[in-house]
User: Fold these one by one.
Assistant:
Number 1:
Amino acid sequence: MFQALTSILAGNPLITPRLNDGVNVHNQNSVVAAIDIGLFTDPADFKQEVDDTIDALKRLLPCADVGFDDVLMPGEPERCPRRTQRQWHPPAAGYAAKTARCFGAVRDPSA
């Protein structure tokens, strides 16, 4: 369903050409939607359910064997490399290195 909203509705289908013809074209699509949650449920109840879902997801075991020590929510990976860069690296440091350090794949050289 999300694929339909973010690519078919936008006039730029991504999965169908790959499935039908084997064509693998990388594109970015997105959708912005304004939803009045109050039409479906009480907004305070909705917020509590979202918070409870995040809490439950954060309690899952991370994939430690590949260097993850936390289950991350949307936006968290993007915040961590910026913090890592400010702490350990000059501004020109590569994104991959920052992300690797964020997830513990590479240790802080000053530690």
Number 2:
Amino acid sequence: MDASQEAWLLLRGFAALLVVIVIAFITLRFGLPWLMRYRAASRPRTLQVDEFLPLDRNHRLYVVRWDRTHLLIATSPDRVQVLHTRADPGSASFEHTLEEVGRASNQGADKA
């Protein structure tokens, strides 16, 4: 095999490698984000964090929606506790739910 044939084979190899790299770049740059959006849009989300309120550095309150149920959840470094559950909630805001839970806990403390 002479030098011109070797150069031609080497050039064809680099051209094939360049084509593969360009196709991989186009697929990852444009195809993958589209696929992720398409898959996310095709599945309905049944679990979603609607709102959260940091109480201090380690404690937070979350309003979590799961199907048609809203949960008020308190978290700390060592545990998670469900404070309130409401099935098929209306248009109550996060603050309104916190006020209801506060009133219920105050009434329970007054009775004790």
Number 3:
Amino acid sequence: MFLDLVKRSTLSTSSVADPNIGRFVFGPVVSEGLGVAYSPAKSSLNVTVSWQKDNRGKALKFVARLEKSVNQLLEMLNITGQHPGIAATLSG
């Protein structure tokens, strides 16, 4: 059972940290998966989530949870005064 889980990548990610590339898409590698492309910059984080049409509900739930998690992290950083100018943008 465990081997079946690790053989399938339902969450595929890729990152590009080039300031000349604002957004890009990284597609899911399995039909029921999600693709997450993220591009960190000095004062922002762009995230693009892609999915196949049958996974819209799963993708929207993931985007909502990711957005909540990012906002919680930003709150913690703002409280400590470490990175008050960071903002996150999500699109699905």
Number 4:
Amino acid sequence: MPESAGVSEPVRAGADPGVSLAAVVNDRLKPMATIALPRIDPAAPSGPEKKALSPWLVWGLLFMVPYVLVFVVFVVYPVLYGLWLARDPQSYVKLFQDPVFFRSMFNTALF
């Protein structure tokens, strides 16, 4: 490589000083080889097939139904209804104008 005006190409660590920078860049831009792996389908599950619900499971679900119904009617519905009513600011004005509200708050704090 000829040097012009006393300036030479910088030498990189591990590079052959006789190889130009363009040759190194072109060498790095060559496409890489890829390996195609064979497609393997997952194995079918082994073991017994799923059966219908067992009698124990049916009885367990039947005993849970009344609890779930009572819970929804007396807990979930009132909470959701209260949140729906709380969206209206006019309901708070009406609440603070009610004399029974302050008496019930006093009784609650007392006991």
